[in-house]
Amino acid sequence: MGIGCFLKSLPHFLMDLYEYESTVSVLGNLSSNSFLCMENGTQIFRPTEDPSDCVKEVKSLMWVYILVGNIIRGIGETPIMPLGISYIEDFAKSENSPLYIGFVETGAIIGPLIGLLLASFCANVYVDTGSVNTDDLTITPTDTRWVGAWWFGFLICAGVNVLTAIPFFFLPKTLPKEGLKNNADVIKNDKKEKQREEVKKEKDGITKDFLPFMKSLLCNPIYMLFILISIVQFNAFVNMFTFMPKYLEQQYGKSASDAIFLIGIYNLPPICLGYIAGGLIMKKFKITVKQAAHIGCWLSLIEYLLHFLCFLMICDNSSVAGITTTYKGVQQDLYVGNTILADCNRDCNCPTKTWDPVCGNNGVSYMSACLAGCETSVGTGINMVFQNCSCIQTSGNSSAVLGLCDKGYDCSMMLQYFLILSAIGSFIYSLSAIPGYMVLLRYIYLGLPAALRGTSYIPAFLILIILKKRLLPGENASSGTMLIEAKVTGKENECKDMNQNSKVLNDDELKTKL
């Protein structure tokens, strides 16, 4: 994992500095105002290339480092959770393993929480920090052209992963089964049993038992249906979680740094609480597999239905003159046509394909200071203020600043509702995760996300129907007759076993044998 993270950070050091398109040249003299509205003047701009030309010029193979880094990192990451959970299941009491797994899952959430906070910090730092003078930048983290220091987090993770690997070398391969007395005889017998198993594995090889084992899994309807559910739901959540920062950026006008921070604060702590609470409930009430299946299914369904409320928590598009509104402030369709030029800026000789937004003091955004009709400017970098803007219709002095305008109080409230609903949904869904693990381990295991998860409930209901017809080990019989017969059979077997053994076993030895 450490090597993979290091490889993923290499492109930053092998590529040229990042350049963003802007009407304001950070290399020239900012006081020349050559980027503003100059009637009958000559503008000096870098030509905007056609997107098809840009695609043809892409010859970099830096993506190979990302691909290979992800493959190597995946090789190291994949065994941790399945083998770790199996490690707990092998050596823990059945009533304690849900709680232990809950702690493991909580630890797996605390790590991403710290990672999201680190990512939030890195996204707020300019990608080429240390190589360029950040005081000359004319964009902020809320700008769509901003690129954060994505590589910095990978370098930190590379070092942390290498350090984390050290304690794993000190974990024992086997442990005494929890609940058994830790005496010399038990440990001795356990070691002999392990040695016999190892000799058998060396003699027979893994291929002898592998195919029959896979056949039993593939022929197990409950296991296969659960795997189907997991795949569909995982695809839905990966899609939603991957693009949620971008969704918060575009929908609610947040920067990448703020979006990542909000996701970490609102989503991951409820998930931790849900994992712990699910483990405690399983331990406290001794939930059976059938009960766990019902809990997991219905809680997940409730969270799925709550997810549809997110479709109501949306904000209007940003008011950009010439795109979503006219220069007179009237809302218009995005596809109404090219109305970027108006009477107030037609003689300014402005570029019409360059996105360098400014916010007027009338609350409307403009594609650039030139298209806003601004004639003068004061200050440098992100603190630049444009004045005498002919397209900004206000009663006082018309001015603008760099960046898009804020979406307002109503949009901020919608964001709060969305985050609160997301936190509630995360808690409910994680509460059902531990019962889902028990089903897997004890016998057997705003659009696209909604559609994917909806289809997953079809096999979920089939699981409930199949489990309803089965009597699983460890469950009470439905009738007193079956219970009496089980007791009688147990007594007969016990008597036969006692008669066959000439040596009388004491209570401790009998318990150990059982």
Automatic annotation (TrEMBL):
Domain annotation Kazal-like: ranges: 338-393
Classification via SUPFAM superfamilies: Kazal-type serine protease inhibitors (SSF100895), MFS general substrate transporter (SSF103473)
Transmembrane segments: 99-127, 147-171, 222-244, 259-281, 417-437, 443-467
Keyword Ion transport: yes
Coiled coil ranges: 177-209
Subcellular location: Cell membrane
GO biological process, one term: monoatomic ion transport
Record key words, sorted: Cell membrane, Coiled coil, Disulfide bond, Glycoprotein, Ion transport, Membrane, Transmembrane, Transmembrane helix, Transport
GO molecular function: bile acid transmembrane transporter activity; sodium-independent organic anion transmembrane transporter activity
Membrane topology value: Multi-pass membrane protein
PROSITE patterns: KAZAL_2 (PS51465)
Family affiliation: Belongs to the organo anion transporter (TC 2.A.60) family.
NCBIfam families, alphabetized: oat
Protein name listed in UniProt: Solute carrier organic anion transporter family member
